[in-house]
Amino acid sequence: MLKRLTIRNYALIRSLEMEPAPDLNVITGETGAGKSIMLGAIGLLTGNRADTRVLWDTKQKCITEGIFDVRPYHLQDIFEKYELDYEDLAVIRREISPAGKSRAFVNDTPVTLDVMRHIGSLLLDIHSQHENLLPGQLAFQLKLIDAYAGNEKVRKLYADNWSAYESSRRAYEALSRQAEQLRSEEDYVRFQLDELVSADFRVGEQETLEAEVKIMENAGEIQDKLQQAISILTQSEYAARSSLASARGLLNSIAAYGKPYHDLLKRVDSQVIELDDIAAEMESLGEKIDFDPERAASVRERLDTLYRLQKKHHAREIAELIAIREQFQHRADQVTSLDADLATAKEQLQAAIKSMHEAAASLSASRKKAFNPLMKEIGLLLKELGMPEAQLEVNYKETPPGESGVDHVDLLFSANKGIPPRPLAQVASGGEFSRLMLCIKYVLASRTAIPTLILDEIDSGVSGEVAIKLGTLMQKMSRDHQLITITHLPQIAAKGTAHYQVFKDNSADKTVSNIRLLSKEDRIREIAGMIGGAKPTATALAGARELVEGE
């Protein structure tokens, strides 16, 4: 429900504010006073496009803001979907800058026009006899039928089953595509896996093999150099071992003369021991070097295999080759378990299809039961509104399951005798169609929360008793749902709880449109003017008073 509307700097509107009543609001005014301009500004809150041509003052930005009580619409999930703060009173605002930039806000959070369009459509339904063909859309017609049939639970059940089916179908199709790809790659995967498994490399092996090859390739040089080193240390005329032994003897002869000489002797002793150990280790290493051509060939072959696989798989280390081997093993295992996984997925899909069809059948049956009572109720309303020959039928056909079920419905309408009913989307827009729309939304409003309904002169072409009945229908509808109607008929204007007059103010240099809430006496004068012209007679005033007070 719209609690407050503010429009600033839009077309002929410099500044306008109104707080509509929760039920029936009527707006009157002379042609050209700015009623349609108001609708254009309100339309910005539903995501309609605009440019700088709408600015009253081209140096200031245009602002249209609506404050809505959104409690009846259960919008928490939608606000959560768009990551918006939810409040029972939602503030929807649209701004157009002098540079032409458009900005949209919900509860002071910037949103895209698509988000504003979605949320705005849930809060405002602007109907013009020249524009709105919403009842011709399949989604709207199914919503009407479901609302009339009370299908909220059964439609929710179908929606849940449809979602489960879609999830199962996507999972099965994805697994089938994966299976097809894996099967096409099976020989390749098996070959790569067998090659890596056969190689059986272990972490650290590369370093060991490369070190072994380096020793075997330089065995002669290593043995020669070790032998030379041993000779220098222990065997030659000037061997280090002999020099150390001589030095030890000298130190030993003076060790008893003091601790410093004794400490030096001990240090030389440790060097002799270390030198003997080094010489022994060099001799041992030299004896261990035994060049084996077969072993050398085997090591080189294994390293060649390693280098080839590293290059092939773009791996730098054996650990990477092992990881690649495990990946191929996983893909091979997938192929092995493929049939079982596909069978399981297929069973789940078939179960989801069965549940979805059962829910669709239940929803469809409930809808079909509502066809005749719904058409009859709308038909009676149309007769009350001056269309006794109006015909409304349901053209039904079953379709493959979809998001809304298995039902395709077309409401067929004819306003006049002898003219076959046609789909609503093909019916020329006009006063008769607008009355049909009002009847449809009257039925819809009696069973579900609908947006604030704004009606733009849908009373065109009616008068007299029909106008009174049309006003009465609006009045009944507004008991539970807010209506705002622009009208030229006094019979309808008199039905409103709140009566607003749109007027032009030419007192300044630039014309502006404004709006005011009429008092009872002002209202009587306005309605009298609608009856008798700009200077209503006493009879017109009396008639206006009777219309207003008769309510």
Question: Looking across the biggest beta sheet, what order are the strands in?
Answer: 2-1-4-5-6-7
Structural class: alpha/beta
Poorly predicted runs are 129-133
What is the count of helical runs? 17
Global Rg: 46 Å
> Which range best describes the helical content: under 10%, 10-25%, 25-40%, 40-55%, 55-70% or over 70%?
55-70%
Question: Mean of residue pLDDT?
Answer: 86
Content of β-strand: 15-25%
**What's the structural domain tally?**
3
Compute the separation of the termini in Å.
24 Å
Q: Give the biggest beta sheet.
A: 6 strands, antiparallel
| Inertia-based shape | elongated
Number-wise, the strands total 15
Mind explaining what this structure looks like?
This protein is α/β, with parallel strands linked by helices and 551 residues long. The protein folds into three domains: 1-130 and 450-518, Rossmann fold, CATH 3.40.50.300; 153-360, no CATH class; 519-551, no CATH class. The protein is 56% helix and 17% strand. It contains 17 helices and 15 strands. The strands form three sheets. It has a six-stranded antiparallel β-sheet with strand order 2-1-4-5-6-7, covered by helices on one side. Strands 8-12-13-3-14-15 form a six-stranded mixed β-sheet. The protein is elongated. The relative contact order is 0.13.
Descriptors:
3 domains; alpha/beta; elongated; 551 residues
Question: Would you summarize the structure shown here?
Answer:
About 55% of the residues lie in helices and about 15% in strands. It folds into 3 domains: about 1-130 and about 450-520, 3-Layer(aba) Sandwich (Rossmann fold), CATH 3.40.50.300; about 155-360, no CATH class; about 520-550, no CATH class.
